[in-house]
Amino acid sequence: MHIAFIGLGNMGAPMARNLLKAGHTLTVFDLNAAAVASLCSEGAAAADSARKAVAEADFVITMLPAAAHVRSAYLGTDGVLAGVRPGVPLVDSSTIDPATVRELAAAAEAHGNALADAPVSGGTVGAQAGTLTFMVGASEALFAQVRPVLAGMGRNLVHCGGTGTGQVAKICNNLILGISMIGVSEAMALGVKLGIDANVLAGIVNTSTGRCWASDTCNPWPGVIETAPAGRGYSGGFGADLMLKDLGLATDAARSVKQPLFLGALAQQVYQAVSHAGDGQLDFSGVIRQYLSAADKESQQ
Ligand code: NAD
Description:
Largest sheet: 6 strands, parallel
Shape: elongated
Helix content: 40-55%
Strand content: 5-15%
Bound molecules: nicotinamide-adenine-dinucleotide
Distance between the termini: 51 Å
Number of helices: 14
CATH superfamily of the largest domain: NAD(P)-binding Rossmann-like Domain
């Protein structure tokens, strides 16, 4: 199939590479010319606008940072809707708010195209390995149409419901994740301060009712889980600034339906403090540093 892929960043580039490996023909576009050149050296064709990238395409995928970028990539004068043929399915895999998805889907429908939201989990490691989970908001018919292409980039393809529900699933999951990482950090820092060994405490938690992904897979105390970012200075993993963005999406969506979000709003402020402290590029488990004195941080080294 001839696919237009727009947005070749940390996630988009490896996803596009997997589509090439799956035997598809790709035309790619990114504002960053180096990202385009890299994909072209592996067999993709280059376009110098989204409009030109989609002109001959049978399928369109976008993977962009935030709603403003997605909006301009679809609705701009050189955007997707200015160039795509009616009937071609459109998939946006960026993490954005459900309201923007529904607005773009309406604009696409007026042009004769169906748009699915398909945000992902699995991070850059999953993007490279082709093992992403796709949370898809689409009609049954559109899901059936996009599924074979998404299968080239992911392992779990979940139909969440109608347009926008993929984003709903994504932001609700990350709401839990952001809050639970703060809870585990708070408890680990308190326990160590009160005199228990971090490994003993984590061992108890991970065989007790406090167990969760933040405690047993990505534990924020260095060395507790060998493969966790905490053991390598919180590098790699899922950046605190991306978590901050996702909690912003959750609090905005909650406001739109007047749904209380007590802990989500507080968690957003905590990650804002992480970013303010200069740790926004670190893995979000670095939030534990908010609970450590300078001396505590020194003794962790
Ligand atoms: P990124 O910043 O690495 O890449 C985004 C790319 O989009 C960049 O190459 C940029 O030049 C390009 N771009 C921006 N505006 C554009 C436009 N108008 N037209 C064409 N190209 C444009 O971001 P990423 O890490 O690849 O993340 C993409 C999306 O996936 C985000 O919404 C993010 O929240 C989500 N996500 C990221 C991860 C992760 O671990 N990085 C995990 C899950 C979901």
